[in-house]
UniProtKB/TrEMBL annotation:
Family: Belongs to the TM6SF family.
Record-given protein name: Transmembrane 6 superfamily member 2b
Signal recorded as keyword: yes
Signal peptide start and end residues: 1-18
Keyword annotations: Membrane, Repeat, Signal, Transmembrane, Transmembrane helix
Subcellular location as annotated: Endomembrane system
Annotated membrane topology: Multi-pass membrane protein
One Gene Ontology biological process: regulation of lipid metabolic process
Organism domain of life: Eukaryota
Length: 383
């Protein structure tokens, strides 16, 4: 099935070429109408071919539909960067002109490559009755962060006074990831939900005797400080440190397109509390929500940081807002580390879930000789 989805998605090239060569299809309202019609036709196509053997999960239709639009996004990014031509000139003028910004181009690359691969992988697993829950949560976090920053940035940025009808085609891509995330969070988890002796043993260690978790907590504290600081910069704080950082390190935060400011505010008001919650989850055992939410947040941060780093370096960003040469390595390293930290947390939480399970208190567990108090073991070892 994933091969069929891939091949059918390529027909988006035919649709774009026809619209690009037919002036009657290039009016703003007509673009919206054709866009809605294409989405309906694509959905109806997959509905017809699966009606005799319908998918077990309705998210299949979302993945298949969005695979089609991934090709459009990839074509848009490549045409704006000059790699191809003849497909999207009309859309740049009368459809969504903000897709020509550096941030939107990097966003489209992510959607056209990373999301496309994830859709095909999830369709393959779904069609073969395999679990795709973890990958799905990463996708949901990625696409929701993508679209929430993108749509809000359009409205509050310099393009807010020139919104065309095609803007409304973004709404399904903003709403459906929320619905998908709710479905995925409510699906049964892949691994065990209750822990026994081994989980009880792992949870008996304090943070000081868990060096990996201790390192992750320190990284999370640094990420929280960086999030708070950049949020203050985006809010035009008069602090001297904020002024220096904006002028000498990341002037892109004040790009009038609006996307970087919106992203920093998303991080400040939503990401910052989640990072604090992750520290709690690494310190206090039995936080069963940790594996799911760390994956969801990791997807969002990975997408946002990809677009942010790429846009701050892209030639379509005017020179005064790009990363200064003298601060290039420091800013790039800080942003890459910030992008990686949530993924490291997610990998830790999904690879070994014992610390995050609810422990079943079996009779006599505390007295079992193979389940001693961990701190006592460590003390004896050092003595």
């Amino acid at each position: 099935m994933e091969r069929l989805v891939f091949l059918f998605s390529l027909t988006a090239l035919v649709v774009l070429h026809c619209m690009n060569t037919t002036p009657e299809f290039q009016e703003p309202v007509v673009i919206l109408q054709i866009g809605i019609a294409v989405l309906v036709v694509v959905w109806f196509f997959y509905f017809l071919i699966t009606r005799r053997s319908p998918p077990k999960d309705t998210l299949f239709y979302v993945f298949a539909e969005f695979s089609f639009t991934c090709v459009i996004d990839l074509v848009s990014a490549m045409e704006h960067d000059g790699f191809i031509s003849g497909f999207m000139e009309f859309y740049q003028k009368t459809g969504e002109p903000y897709l020509g910004t550096a941030y939107a181009i990097m966003m489209c690359y992510w959607d056209g490559i990373v999301h496309f691969i994830m859709y095909l992988m999830m369709i393959q697993r779904l069609w073969n009755s395999k679990s795709y829950r973890t990958l799905g949560l990463f996708w949901a976090g990625s696409l929701f962060a993508n679209m929430s920053v993108f749509v809000t940035g359009i409205v509050v940025g310099k393009f807010g006074s020139d919104i065309r009808p095609a803007f409304w085609l973004n709404m399904p891509f903003l709403m459906l990831p929320i619905w998908g995330a709710i479905k995925l969070f409510n699906q049964p988890k892949n691994g065990p939900t209750l822990g026994g002796y081994r989980a009880h043993y792992d949870q008996s260690f304090n943070l000081i005797w868990r060096p990996t978790d201790l390192l992750l907590v320190l990284l999370l504290l640094g990420a929280m400080a960086f999030t708070l600081f950049r949020g203050l910069v985006a809010l035009d704080s008069p602090l001297e440190a904020c002024t220096i950082y904006l002028r000498q390190y990341e002037p892109y935060l004040k790009d009038p397109v609006g996307y970087p400011k919106v992203m920093m505010l998303h991080f400040l008001f939503y990401m910052l509390p989640m990072l604090g919650a992750f520290i709690y989850g690494l310190v206090v055992p039995g936080c069963t929500w940790m594996p799911d939410w760390t994956v969801f947040v990791a997807g969002g941060v990975a997408q946002c940081q990809w677009a942010h780093i790429g846009a701050s370096l892209h030639p379509r960003t005017v020179a005064p807002f790009r990363i200064p040469d003298e601060a290039f390595l420091a800013v790039l390293a800080a942003n890459l580390l910030y992008a990686v930290i949530p993924s490291l947390i997610a990998m830790r939480c999904t690879s070994n879930t014992n610390f995050f399970l609810t422990v079943t208190k079996l009779p006599g567990m505390e007295g079992m000789p193979w389940v001693p108090d961990a701190d006592t073991l460590v003390e004896k070892k050092h003595n």
